[in-house]
Amino acid sequence: TSPADPSVYLDAAGYHVGATTLPEVRGGAFAAGAVVLLARLPTGAVEAAGSLGAGSAHVVGRCSMRGGAERCQFRTGGGAELSADDTLMSARGRTWWQRHYSDGGTTRIDIADGVPVPVPLLLGH
User: Going by fewer Cβ within 10 Å, which terminus of the chain is more open, N or C?
Assistant: First the structure.
């Protein structure tokens, strides 16, 4: 588990990751140092893509969120690949994704407002 669990949520001001807000620049596209694209499918699933960093530290991600689960794929600028499975958890009025990376790493991604959003960013790793 990472030392500091990140938090995410979506509201009228944008897509929030920790203390950073990515304002919506176009329908479903949020950008400010990182980019997150969200698309709701007619099936109710939400597909997401994200990009963060530069050069060899650059990471792109894709996630598919269906119900209380999310599956993500990440690729670094150096070509390394990693996947993650997220499970929606809730207890004592709090909601979070419990993320399990394919290399054995885990992290908790708090959902500040309790409404699940996809997280196509390599957080807590």
Answer: N
